[in-house]
Amino acid sequence: MRLIGDYHTHTIFSHGKGSIRDNVEAARKKGLKQIAICDHGPGHRLYGVKRDALFHMRGIVDGLNKEYGDIEVLLGVEANVMSYDGSIDVDDDILGIIDILLLGFHYGIIPKGWDSRFKFYILNPLSKLLPPLQKNMIAWNTGAIIRAMDRYPIDIITHPGSKARLDIGRLARAAYDRGVALEINSSHSQLSVENIEIALNEKVEFYINSDAHHPSRVGDVATGIERALKAKIPIDRIVNVEKE
Ligand SMILES: [Zn+2]
Ligand SMILES: [Zn+2]
User: Does the pTM exceed 0.85?
Assistant: First the structure.
Protein backbone atom coordinates (compact mmCIF):
# COMPACT_ATOMS: atom_id res chain seq x y z
CA MET A 1 0.00 0.00 0.00
CA ARG A 2 1.58 3.26 -1.14
CA LEU A 3 0.76 6.62 0.42
CA ILE A 4 0.17 9.58 -1.91
CA GLY A 5 -0.51 12.29 0.65
CA ASP A 6 -0.15 12.89 4.38
CA TYR A 7 -2.92 15.16 5.62
CA HIS A 8 -2.01 15.45 9.29
CA THR A 9 1.38 16.94 10.18
CA HIS A 10 2.42 19.43 12.88
CA THR A 11 5.08 22.13 12.84
CA ILE A 12 6.73 24.61 15.22
CA PHE A 13 3.55 26.71 14.94
CA SER A 14 2.02 24.31 17.47
CA HIS A 15 4.27 21.75 19.16
CA GLY A 16 5.93 20.08 16.22
CA LYS A 17 9.71 20.16 15.87
CA GLY A 18 10.12 21.21 12.26
CA SER A 19 9.20 24.20 10.10
CA ILE A 20 6.59 24.04 7.34
CA ARG A 21 9.45 23.84 4.83
CA ASP A 22 11.05 20.94 6.77
CA ASN A 23 7.80 18.96 6.59
CA VAL A 24 7.32 19.70 2.90
CA GLU A 25 10.89 18.66 2.06
CA ALA A 26 10.48 15.46 4.07
CA ALA A 27 7.26 14.71 2.18
CA ARG A 28 8.97 15.30 -1.20
CA LYS A 29 11.78 12.92 -0.24
CA LYS A 30 9.15 10.27 0.47
CA GLY A 31 7.56 10.87 -2.93
CA LEU A 32 4.26 12.27 -1.60
CA LYS A 33 2.17 14.35 -3.98
CA GLN A 34 0.31 16.28 -1.26
CA ILE A 35 0.96 17.28 2.32
CA ALA A 36 -1.28 19.17 4.72
CA ILE A 37 0.07 21.33 7.53
CA CYS A 38 -2.51 20.94 10.30
CA ASP A 39 -1.36 22.42 13.59
CA HIS A 40 -3.52 22.29 16.71
CA GLY A 41 -6.38 24.79 16.80
CA PRO A 42 -5.94 28.08 18.72
CA GLY A 43 -8.25 26.84 21.51
CA HIS A 44 -5.49 24.61 22.82
CA ARG A 45 -3.98 26.43 25.78
CA LEU A 46 -0.60 24.73 25.74
CA TYR A 47 0.33 24.34 22.13
CA GLY A 48 -2.46 25.66 19.94
CA VAL A 49 -1.38 27.68 16.92
CA LYS A 50 -1.77 31.42 17.47
CA ARG A 51 -4.77 32.61 15.51
CA ASP A 52 -2.79 35.35 13.74
CA ALA A 53 0.02 32.94 12.86
CA LEU A 54 -2.38 31.11 10.54
CA PHE A 55 -2.44 34.09 8.19
CA HIS A 56 1.37 34.14 8.14
CA MET A 57 1.40 30.37 7.53
CA ARG A 58 -0.89 30.90 4.53
CA GLY A 59 1.84 33.03 2.96
CA ILE A 60 4.53 30.44 3.65
CA VAL A 61 2.40 27.66 2.14
CA ASP A 62 1.63 29.75 -0.96
CA GLY A 63 5.35 30.46 -1.37
CA LEU A 64 6.26 26.77 -1.15
CA ASN A 65 3.58 25.89 -3.70
CA LYS A 66 5.18 28.36 -6.13
CA GLU A 67 8.65 27.03 -5.39
CA TYR A 68 7.90 23.32 -5.80
CA GLY A 69 6.09 21.91 -8.81
CA ASP A 70 6.18 18.31 -7.61
CA ILE A 71 4.09 18.57 -4.44
CA GLU A 72 0.96 20.40 -3.37
CA VAL A 73 0.98 21.90 0.11
CA LEU A 74 -2.33 22.45 1.90
CA LEU A 75 -2.89 24.65 4.91
CA GLY A 76 -5.25 23.21 7.50
CA VAL A 77 -6.01 23.14 11.19
CA GLU A 78 -6.57 20.23 13.56
CA ALA A 79 -9.44 21.94 15.35
CA ASN A 80 -10.61 21.10 18.87
CA VAL A 81 -14.12 20.19 19.98
CA MET A 82 -14.86 23.13 22.31
CA SER A 83 -18.34 22.27 23.60
CA TYR A 84 -21.02 19.61 23.53
CA ASP A 85 -23.16 21.75 21.25
CA GLY A 86 -20.50 21.15 18.60
CA SER A 87 -18.58 24.43 18.54
CA ILE A 88 -14.92 24.31 17.50
CA ASP A 89 -12.00 26.74 17.74
CA VAL A 90 -11.95 27.95 14.14
CA ASP A 91 -13.82 31.10 13.07
CA ASP A 92 -15.04 32.24 9.65
CA ASP A 93 -11.88 34.26 8.91
CA ILE A 94 -9.73 31.18 9.44
CA LEU A 95 -12.16 29.01 7.48
CA GLY A 96 -11.71 31.50 4.64
CA ILE A 97 -7.96 30.88 4.31
CA ILE A 98 -7.54 27.15 4.98
CA ASP A 99 -7.71 24.29 2.49
CA ILE A 100 -8.58 21.43 4.82
CA LEU A 101 -10.22 21.11 8.24
CA LEU A 102 -9.52 18.32 10.69
CA LEU A 103 -11.35 17.89 13.99
CA GLY A 104 -10.56 15.86 17.08
CA PHE A 105 -11.03 15.72 20.83
CA HIS A 106 -8.02 16.98 22.80
CA TYR A 107 -7.27 17.79 26.41
CA GLY A 108 -5.59 21.14 27.11
CA ILE A 109 -8.58 23.20 26.00
CA ILE A 110 -11.00 25.10 28.19
CA PRO A 111 -14.41 23.98 26.96
CA LYS A 112 -17.05 26.66 26.47
CA GLY A 113 -19.53 26.73 29.36
CA TRP A 114 -19.60 24.93 32.69
CA ASP A 115 -21.74 22.08 31.42
CA SER A 116 -19.17 21.17 28.75
CA ARG A 117 -16.27 21.66 31.20
CA PHE A 118 -17.89 19.31 33.70
CA LYS A 119 -18.66 16.68 31.08
CA PHE A 120 -15.23 16.80 29.45
CA TYR A 121 -12.94 17.02 32.48
CA ILE A 122 -14.96 15.28 35.22
CA LEU A 123 -17.47 12.88 33.70
CA ASN A 124 -15.33 11.84 30.73
CA PRO A 125 -12.44 10.40 32.81
CA LEU A 126 -14.88 9.13 35.45
CA SER A 127 -16.89 7.26 32.83
CA LYS A 128 -13.89 5.00 32.23
CA LEU A 129 -14.30 3.74 35.80
CA LEU A 130 -18.09 3.82 36.04
CA PRO A 131 -19.74 1.65 33.39
CA PRO A 132 -23.27 3.10 33.89
CA LEU A 133 -21.92 6.52 32.97
CA GLN A 134 -20.10 5.20 29.93
CA LYS A 135 -23.15 4.88 27.72
CA ASN A 136 -24.21 8.48 28.30
CA MET A 137 -20.69 9.82 27.88
CA ILE A 138 -20.21 7.98 24.57
CA ALA A 139 -23.53 9.40 23.34
CA TRP A 140 -22.55 12.95 24.40
CA ASN A 141 -19.08 12.74 22.83
CA THR A 142 -20.41 11.31 19.59
CA GLY A 143 -23.22 13.89 19.50
CA ALA A 144 -20.71 16.73 19.90
CA ILE A 145 -18.72 15.59 16.84
CA ILE A 146 -21.87 15.10 14.76
CA ARG A 147 -23.12 18.58 15.65
CA ALA A 148 -19.70 20.01 14.74
CA MET A 149 -19.90 18.25 11.35
CA ASP A 150 -23.30 19.91 10.83
CA ARG A 151 -21.91 23.35 11.66
CA TYR A 152 -18.48 23.36 10.02
CA PRO A 153 -16.97 22.12 6.72
CA ILE A 154 -14.96 19.32 8.33
CA ASP A 155 -12.99 16.96 6.10
CA ILE A 156 -11.50 14.42 8.52
CA ILE A 157 -12.17 13.31 12.11
CA THR A 158 -8.76 12.68 13.68
CA HIS A 159 -7.99 9.61 15.84
CA PRO A 160 -11.70 8.87 16.52
CA GLY A 161 -12.01 7.21 19.93
CA SER A 162 -8.72 8.51 21.36
CA LYS A 163 -9.08 11.05 24.22
CA ALA A 164 -12.87 10.62 24.31
CA ARG A 165 -14.79 7.44 23.64
CA LEU A 166 -17.16 7.41 20.69
CA ASP A 167 -19.88 5.26 19.19
CA ILE A 168 -17.89 4.44 16.06
CA GLY A 169 -20.81 2.94 14.15
CA ARG A 170 -22.99 6.02 14.70
CA LEU A 171 -20.07 8.32 13.93
CA ALA A 172 -19.20 6.45 10.72
CA ARG A 173 -22.81 6.65 9.53
CA ALA A 174 -23.08 10.37 10.31
CA ALA A 175 -19.67 11.09 8.76
CA TYR A 176 -20.59 9.32 5.51
CA ASP A 177 -23.88 11.25 5.30
CA ARG A 178 -21.96 14.51 5.63
CA GLY A 179 -19.04 13.65 3.34
CA VAL A 180 -16.52 13.45 6.19
CA ALA A 181 -13.79 10.80 6.41
CA LEU A 182 -12.37 9.01 9.47
CA GLU A 183 -8.67 8.86 10.22
CA ILE A 184 -6.50 5.87 10.91
CA ASN A 185 -3.86 7.71 12.91
CA SER A 186 -0.36 6.22 12.97
CA SER A 187 0.65 8.05 16.18
CA HIS A 188 -2.46 7.09 18.18
CA SER A 189 -4.05 3.66 18.61
CA GLN A 190 -7.33 4.81 17.00
CA LEU A 191 -8.91 3.88 14.80
CA SER A 192 -8.08 0.42 16.14
CA VAL A 193 -8.51 -2.70 14.00
CA GLU A 194 -11.76 -3.43 15.82
CA ASN A 195 -13.11 0.08 15.28
CA ILE A 196 -12.09 0.07 11.61
CA GLU A 197 -14.12 -3.13 11.24
CA ILE A 198 -17.15 -1.41 12.83
CA ALA A 199 -16.75 1.64 10.57
CA LEU A 200 -16.46 -0.62 7.52
CA ASN A 201 -20.11 -1.62 8.00
CA GLU A 202 -20.96 1.90 6.85
CA LYS A 203 -19.86 3.48 3.56
CA VAL A 204 -17.51 6.04 5.16
CA GLU A 205 -14.03 6.61 3.68
CA PHE A 206 -10.71 6.59 5.52
CA TYR A 207 -7.41 8.48 5.53
CA ILE A 208 -4.21 6.95 6.88
CA ASN A 209 -2.13 9.81 8.34
CA SER A 210 1.12 10.10 10.28
CA ASP A 211 0.19 12.86 12.77
CA ALA A 212 3.94 13.62 12.56
CA HIS A 213 5.32 16.03 15.15
CA HIS A 214 8.82 15.76 13.64
CA PRO A 215 9.80 16.06 9.97
CA SER A 216 11.41 12.60 10.07
CA ARG A 217 7.98 11.11 10.75
CA VAL A 218 6.16 12.80 7.87
CA GLY A 219 4.66 10.07 5.67
CA ASP A 220 5.47 7.41 8.24
CA VAL A 221 2.20 5.51 8.37
CA ALA A 222 3.53 1.98 8.91
CA THR A 223 1.35 1.25 11.96
CA GLY A 224 -1.71 2.73 10.28
CA ILE A 225 -1.23 0.56 7.21
CA GLU A 226 -0.70 -2.46 9.43
CA ARG A 227 -4.10 -1.88 11.10
CA ALA A 228 -5.78 -1.20 7.76
CA LEU A 229 -4.47 -4.49 6.36
CA LYS A 230 -5.54 -6.42 9.46
CA ALA A 231 -9.03 -4.95 9.18
CA LYS A 232 -9.05 -5.82 5.44
CA ILE A 233 -10.21 -2.42 4.23
CA PRO A 234 -10.89 -2.44 0.48
CA ILE A 235 -8.27 -0.14 -1.02
CA ASP A 236 -10.86 2.08 -2.72
CA ARG A 237 -12.16 3.09 0.71
CA ILE A 238 -8.81 4.70 1.61
CA VAL A 239 -8.59 8.17 0.09
CA ASN A 240 -4.83 8.78 0.27
CA VAL A 241 -3.22 5.61 -1.06
CA GLU A 242 -2.34 4.63 -4.62
CA LYS A 243 -5.14 2.55 -6.09
CA GLU A 244 -3.18 -0.02 -8.13
ZN1 LIG B 1 -4.80 15.13 17.63
ZN1 LIG C 1 -2.32 15.94 15.53
Answer: yes
Domain count across the chain: 1
Task: Determine, yes or no, domain membership for 244.
Answer: no
Average pLDDT, the chain: 96
CA of 10 to the centre of ligand 2 (A): 6
The overall longest dimension of the chain from CA atoms, in Å, is 56
**DSSP H helical ranges for the chain:** 20-29, 53-67, 92-95, 114-118, 124-127, 131-151, 168-177, 193-199, 222-230
Residue 213 CA: which ligand is closest?
2
Q: 13 alpha carbon to ligand 1 midpoint, in Å?
A: 15
pLDDT tens for each residue of 7-49: 999 999 999 999 999 999 999 999 999 999 999 999 998 889 9
Q: Please name the residues in contact with 135: beta carbons below 8 A apart, sequence gap of 6 or more.
A: none
Residue 85 belongs to a domain with what CATH number? 3.20.20.140
User: How much distance in Å is there from the Cα of 159 to the middle of ligand 1?
Assistant: 7
Ligand 2 centroid–CA 79 distance in Å is: 9
Q: What is the pLDDT of residue 46?
A: 87
Query: pLDDT tens digits for 49-100?
Result: 999 999 999 999 999 999 999 999 999 999 999 999 999 999 999 999 999 9
